[in-house]
Amino acid sequence: GGRIGLLVDPRLLARLSAGRRVALISGTNGKTTTTRLTAAAVGVLGPVATNPFGANMPTGHVSALVREPRARLAVLEVDEHWLPKVIGPTGAEVVALLNLSRDQLDRAKEVAMVAQVWRDTLARHADVEVVANADDPMVVWAATAAGKVTWFSAGQRWRDDSWVCPQCGSAIVRDRNDWWCSGGDLRRPAPQWTAFPREVVAPDGARYEIKLALPGRVNVGNAATALAVAAHFGVHPDQAVPRLAEVTSVAGRYAQVERDGRVIRLLLAKNPASWLEAFDMAEQVPTVLAVNARGPDGLDTSWLFDVDFSPLLGRQ
Questions:
Q1: Distance of CA 127 to the CA centre of its chain
Q2: For residue 121, what are the contacts with CB-CB under 8 A and spacing of at least 6?
Q3: What is the pLDDT of residue 296?
Q4: How do strand 94-97 and strand 129-133 relate by DSSP bridges?
Q5: Which of 3, 74, 137, 167 has its CA 20 to 30 A from that of 144?
Q6: 22: Cβ–Cβ under 8 A, 6 or more apart, which residues?
Q7: What's the pTM?
Q8: Which residues of the chain have pLDDT under 70?
């Protein structure tokens, strides 16, 4: 439907976005989950138009907005390469930038190139508020071009795409949770929102216990992002936190299914960074790995060589 609509009217996305308050969620990993959590949090204010199944290009955005014609709020997941083309037509108020890592290199740009595209885009849209991950040097460099930034700390376990400063090419130095460029002035900014294993600390220092139906510490970081975006729309964490617990599955990922008397947890991993998080979520039980190398998800499986499979030692 979205594809046909854009063929009929190339400006359809802008027309459908007019009069709405729009938030965009982008990054390599966690977009779909963070979008779902953010839509739940913002839903305190009323109906929300969103693309819950990961259709994150303009055709999917048009379909999502058509489905909720009366919703004055919209939370849209955006493919990281499409962000420059979507931010203008949607008139986005806030853009959340989660992370950047290698992904689908047969059809995607190298990580530093994506960061440069983001940086150039945000410089042209200085009125957009950015919610950005302070723990990812690539994201920080891109976001510093924005007019206003709210920083969150969600951690960065996968670091093999950010050892070199994107600004000057010097080495990135790390000390526990802190990092800085060894040859320039780029460094980790102080976050206003911080995710811990079971709670999120807000800008005023208030602590909110996070109880999610979704597994993994990474989703507490996604929850912190959702709270920061919701706060931009005027939703207090006291109202938003209970809504986060209502999200039980996201487009099939994290779902539990029963087969032949066994309960199976489905986890999606699509690049080295997300495999690392998936292994943390997987219980110490027999595990099936399935690799998809078909057209919709890219034909290049070379990134599998970078995955550390050692957490699977000892299990069937």
A1: 21
A2: 83, 84, 87
A3: 67
A4: parallel
A5: 74
A6: 73, 74, 75, 76, 90, 91, 92, 93
A7: 0.92
A8: 106-107, 296-297
